[in-house]
Specification:
The protein is an alpha/beta fold. It has 13 helices and 14 strands. The structure holds threonylcarbamoyladenylate and magnesium ion. Magnesium ion binds next to loops.
Amino acid sequence: METKLLAVDPLRPSPQAIAEAAEIIKAGGLVAFPTETVYGLAANALDAAAVARIFVAKGRPPQNPIIVHIADLAELAAVAAEWPPLAAKLEARFWPGPLTLVLKKHPQVPDIVTAGGPTVAVRMPSHPVALALIRASQAPLAAPSANVSTQISATRAEHVLRGLSGRIDLVLDAGPTAGGLESTVLDVTASPPRLLRPGLVAPAEIEAVIGPIAGVDRFAAGGVAAGGEEPVGPLRSPGMLARHYAPQVPLECLPQGDDWARIEDLRHDLRRLGWLALGPVNADASCGVLIIEMPTEPEAYAAQLYAALHALEAAEVERIIVTLPPAGDAWLAIRDRLRRASVAE
Ligand code: TXA
Ligand code: MG
């Protein structure tokens, strides 16, 4: 299969391009498209055979459920069996936007979308191209991130093609995505609601709307990846897999201050080393280390993280050293992704 690349304006995508993509979705095909978080890989969520193609293209384990994307609240009735008052409050504050809500599933949602489980994850993205595609497809779209399973998510069309070229029908290229990290996933069938994956919406922002939520501590403590948790049976959340969002190069995270000593150590044995530094560094340019100076502000860091990892991977470095950003709510999702990227295969 040849993968077509179609450039679209991020704010005002041409109706012809959107119609072409929607025809592919209606015919059961796969379209990669931008959201405000990362690029997604879409199929008609109500077409089990089409969703099955997502699993094949990504090499995704069948026990990983997929997020369903809607463009209008009216579509909720087709995918969720219940809409709790808490969910309505969160919707009013955060949709469209990077918050995914886990809800009781509607019987017509195919089992393959939910990995056979009783819940469905739903979000309403804010990216104009995403909204236009959902509306033109006249169906909710099942869409995981547009990357090979466990590898780095895509924030640009070229990242999508690096992993999925030849395996999907079309990529809608609207340039880099603004957010750069995946949505926050919150299970609102639990009481209190439970954080399943930290993301672009911080826990404190959610708690400001609905009060205390569960599950934040274990991410803050870093226990998931550090403990190497391997869930058994249908996953509560595939983001909980220890190794995820990972480059195909070994990656080590070090606290600021320990980073340079480790690099000094490694560069005797390794020819090509990559370093995601935090803020400007004044290392000797001839030191043989490919240095990417990351922003010291979390939003800007998130927006650039995956592109930086893709760049180091493409440069074929033999090891990536990452200076860990500080602890704290604003860095929670970033530290979570870095920890998972550092788990050995
Ligand atoms: O920002 C995002 O969420 C992106 C864009 C494309 O929307 N999508 C994304 O999908 O990151 P994916 O497949 O890479 O991650 C899916 C996440 C899992 O980590 C899991 O937490 C959650 O969605 N998930 C999906 N269905 C679920 C369910 N029924 N119960 C619990 N978690 C679920
Ligand atoms: Mg993913």
